[in-house]
Amino acid sequence: MYVVIAGCGRVGSGIAKVLVAEGHDVTVIDEDADSFELLGDDFPGQFVTGAALDWDVLKEAGIEGADAFVAVTDGDNTNIVCAQIAQRKFGVTCAVARVYDPARAELFASTGVRTVCPTRDARSLLLDAVHSCQLPQREV
Fold first, then answer.
1. Rounded-to-integer distance, Cα 124 and Cα 11, Å
2. Which of 17, 21, 32, 140 is the most buried (most CB within 10 A)?
3. pTM attached to this predicted model
4. Domains, the chain
5. Is 135 exposed, middle or buried (CB count within 10 Å of its CB: 0-12, 13-18, 19+)?
6. What span, in angstroms and rounded, lies between the C-alpha atoms of 121 and 48?
7. Contact between 96 and 114 (Cβ < 8 Å)
8. What value, to the nearest 5°, has the Cα angle with vertex 123 and ends 122 and 125?
9. Cα gap 81→78, rounded to integer Å
10. Which pairing describes strands 25-30 and 46-49: parallel, antiparallel, or unpaired?
11. What are the backbone dihedrals phi and psi of residue 68, each rounded to the nearest 5 degrees, phi first?
């Protein structure tokens, strides 16, 4: 599988390293060339410096042949638009966007863009953890 990842922060670089270790081909896009240091010196994938919203940058990253696209930049709007471009313009079947705003994550998921919402997911996990503490009921 060939995967293009937009964003090379902790999440993007971590996903890239796991996918490469699993035997997949990966290209990572980021505007800050220094962020590629998170991949390590032995990262066998490719990296492209530029804005993931720029179609020429996406083409340089090989979006036209990608099987999957993951958008994990620090901006919800960028992630949503990039995933839509990958899916609708370049025909990438699996396009996933990290979206911090739960309402927007739900809205764009309803349009066919796969979204992951860490805010919603963390809230659920934290509430589950609190509920598992079996706290005594307080009288009101």
1. 20
2. 17
3. 0.90
4. 2-132 (3.40.50.720)
5. exposed
6. 30
7. yes
8. 60
9. 5
10. parallel
11. -145, 150
